[in-house]
Amino acid sequence: MIKSEQHVAIMNKLQYPALIARSLDLILVRNDSERVQALRLTRSILIVAPALFHTAIARSLMCVALASKTPAEVEDDKTRRDRKEEDDEEKVNDRMSRAFIAVITELCVLNRDIFINTGGVRVLMHSLQVVRPGRMTESILGALLHLLNSPHTRAQANVDLQFIAASFTDLPCLETSRPGWGNMYGSEYRPWYHVALLSLLRSVPGVLHFCHPGDPLSLKSLVSTLYLNNLPVRKALLGVLHELLGLPTPEWTDEFSVLLSAVDPARFQEEFKLSEGFVAREGRTILPSVSKARVDITELHLSLVLYCLLEANLLEALIYVIVSEDTLISVSATILLGHILYLAHRQLPPECVNLSPAVPNLVSYAVRGRPALALSNRPHPPSPPSPTGPGSLVSVTDLTRGPDLTTLSTSSKNQAVQSVLEMLSDFSQDKTKRDVDEILNSNHVEEEFCARSQQRALSAVTALSQLHKMLRRRPAPASIFLDTVLSHVEPRPSSQESETIVRVKGKSLPKHKIPNILAKESEEAIKDSGVLTVKDAFAWNWEAIRAVFKTRAAPIVRLEDSSHKLFLKKIVHFLLPSNNQLSRCDLSSNIYSMAGIDLLKFLLDCEHTDATKLLEEFLYDLHDQLEQILTSESAHDTLLSPKNVSNTLSQHYFLFIGILSSRTQGLKALESTGVLDILNRVALQSKHDCYVKLIVSCLDYSSSTVTRLILSNILTSEQVTSRHYATQFLSILLRTRLDTSPSHLEWVIESLVNQLQDEKKLVALSALNSLDEACDNERYLEAVIALRPSLLKFQDKGLLLLIRFLSSPSGFSYLNEASFVSNQLDRWANHFNYRYVQLMEADIHDALTLHRRTEDGQYTRRLSSARPPVGAAFVLPHLYGMLARHEQGFNMLRSQQHVYILFQRITAGRCSTDDQILELKAALWAAGNLATSPAGVGLLSEQGVVPAVVRLTECCPVYSVRSTGFYVMALIASTQQGTSLLQQYGWMSVRRNRHDQWPALVPSSSTLLSPPGLTPDYNDPLLAPSSEESSESSDHVTPLFFMGPPGPAGTEAGPGPGSQLPWYRGRERAGGGSVGSGERRSLTLPHKSSAPNMMSLMGVQHVRSYSESKAEQWENQSQVADELSGIR
């Protein structure tokens, strides 16, 4: 009945809200239906007319929500019941409390004044401790963060989210005497603060509120809890840090090898199974995206959080945990430290990363059993830190020197250990050599304790080295199937020939003797394999068998020899499906399949008729087993049943077919035996998608028209799941090196364009997303433009993909002929610039929260409490950014008057109302996308837009505008000109693309201190190559963020004179002013070149290692340093 604001006004005039409030507040046994209807009416009023929402209804909602019990109260009630005690004021646990909390959360977003005036802030903070599902915790916290965004509501609501950290740091939470609190960190209440802290740090308002550098009760206090000798607290915090940084949840083990395999990016995951996403999922997870230079918002946010953690001295705290007494925590902290170092190398500019004194301390522990000392003339910040405040009883530093919080020990040995810990905590302060000796002598350092610390540090250094070696070899396929897909597209060198083998072995022999020597060695290898003497095939030496087949020398296996022929027959007999030997092995026994692949390649290369007969025997037997899938009453009764191919090596028979399809001779054998025909029939007629996944993922499509025909038939089959998986597999092919084969590339693009016409939205959107990723590659983009697909039926997504055509001169000419460009310029000026802001923020929220869209683009009900990993949120294509890529489009864009109006909005910086905030964001995104080309950077520089963007990012009181400015500056930094321009304002950038995993950072010359010319250069790449020199810091360094001083309850005041804080400044990364290169060393050997040292300009204090101190004694030190600097 309520359809307009007028209806709500009439209800308020008739005093109906009082009746609604009474129905909501009346909790009776038979009153549930009335309360449900009253709550539905309340939501209708809130949606139709939020400004007219009555205070009486709001207060009723607040009272019911506050009556819900927290976990501690539930435990207290349970204890009282056990003791048979009565409580007259016991709360009633209302079953509808969650529904009331949901309505209150909506009220917080739609009518903030009513929400604040009726005590909604207190209610939601209380509700955070009541709800248990993580998704509800995230929604409640999101509403509170919404209040922090605006300076008006931030001051009015006085929201203080520091209590989330109290779950880790507040001492009453750690008391074991109170029922319900002793096992809090291992109980079922754990998810609420875990998810709350993650949600807080995954939002820019949360980071700006919680990571304030001057607030000792926020992130710094949280990191300091690692110094507490409390196992549950450390485990909980390490788990949060792992998930926050995108790492898998740690396994608590004392073996480094177990944890290294658990965090390996190329590990086999559950999602890679045949019953799950299989190769399509594995490829999306492991293979790098085609978008190597496109800005990813989630990576930017990760960089911001990572820098905050480094500023909070997380590395020092992890080193302290590594050398602690608990081995489980030490192992987990070591792996976390290695990943943080890896992420810092990839995500942060080198000017913003300082690993001293943390890493030198770890090395010092490994060498001497104690931390290194800062022997410089200036003091270094002490470690561990000692924040104090009203939320804690004593300082964290004092706690680290006291007894265990959970187990009070009075043994003399533990007291000695604690005294040593007290002494070691002073080592980070400024000491001289004589002071060190006095400390060691007066404290009677226990050699046994130092020896244990040294052993743990040595193990940690070894594990870090192994982790580094592992990451250098990544990305790598996790399964043999993805490896085969890559081998189809990227041909690999064949096995070694005879002359190469002899050369590798270091022998120098005449050519006529080589065959005889290899024949003799092959005889020995065949005998060592045990094939001719042992009946049990699983007892054969399969590594020796592989060694025989991987050598392509002609005399290795001679079929004229009866023993060699028997050798081949027995192995082929083992591989035959009808013999049920290979097919009964579990999936962990890949050695048999690898040997089978080597055998098939050998049979293809061998020209002997017996080799052909053995290959045909194998293929005919496999043909019969495949045919049984269609002819049997049930596919589950066959050898290649869905259960068998999902759990055993039966699935590798399809892999053998794929290996054969990559060879001309193998393809002929597959056609002559009818295997390809039966594969096509199984893919189209079978109702089990496991066969489709195997067939699609194994065949080679690089050159054969027969295999392409099979995939084309699957793409147009009746089964939706088959079409969807085949479309996903085409997106995996895009991430391989298709540019080496133009015909293959064109076929893949054409197949994806055809899938846009699929009747199912799920399949069509999958193809659309794949094409959007493909357009980040210039050759892929030209192939898509040549097909001229119909995209506007996909509404916003289709329009944005069509706009990407404008970045190419050919696409611009094609669309400009249809007056598309001029129409879009008018549309974006009037409407779509604001729509772009909504689309970008929706994608960012979708990537950083638990509320995710499904593959068909819809939001569905979340049925599980699983927390998916953070997804990618690439910056969407913008009309101005695409036009600025070439001269013709840029000239057209520069003639538009509304572009300069957007620039004026940025320089004005008005953000008092919601409309002004939307206009300012639209202008920022337009300017940022325009700056993705050198010509656009020049235009922004002429109009003075860049300093205005920097000012908004640093000082804007609206947090969402500040975050938008941060993203826009990342777009500006996607060109060399933009990077150098931002450097003048104190913002450093990562100068490499996403595909450069381990770039060599060469010290830049002094000429790079001045920005390059800002003349239009339309052919300049978006990002410099991996070997590009890292820029040096400008002498003019400004604060990068403005944050007011914390208020009485942790709130932040607006900007005021003299209230700027030097946060995120390279100069204050490690404190102090500038230091000459002669006073500190950034390298193992001193750098004495004429150019000023980068780190000395930033004022970073470096704690010298033992090797650096010894280096001072070298007489020829300056000569060596000059030679090294010349090499660099």
TrEMBL record:
Residue ranges of domain Rapamycin-insensitive companion of mTOR N-terminal in the record: 2-349
Biased composition (Low complexity): 1003-1016
Stated family: Belongs to the RICTOR family.
Protein's UniProt name: Rapamycin-insensitive companion of mTOR
Any one GO molecular function term: protein serine/threonine kinase activator activity
Entry superkingdom: Eukaryota
Domain Rapamycin-insensitive companion of mTOR stretches: 917-989
Rapamycin-insensitive companion of mTOR middle domain segment(s): 517-736
Region of interest (Disordered), ranges: 374-397, 1003-1093, 1108-1128
A single GO cellular-component term on record: TORC2 complex
SMART domains according to UniProt: RasGEF_N_2, RICTOR_M, RICTOR_N, RICTOR_V
GO BP terms in the entry: positive regulation of phosphatidylinositol 3-kinase/protein kinase B signal transduction; TORC2 signaling
Pfam families, alphabetized: RasGEF_N_2, RICTOR_M, RICTOR_N, RICTOR_V
Stretches with biased composition (Pro residues): 379-388
InterPro entries recorded: ARM-type_fold, Pianissimo_fam, Pianissimo_N, Rictor_IV, RICTOR_M, RICTOR_V
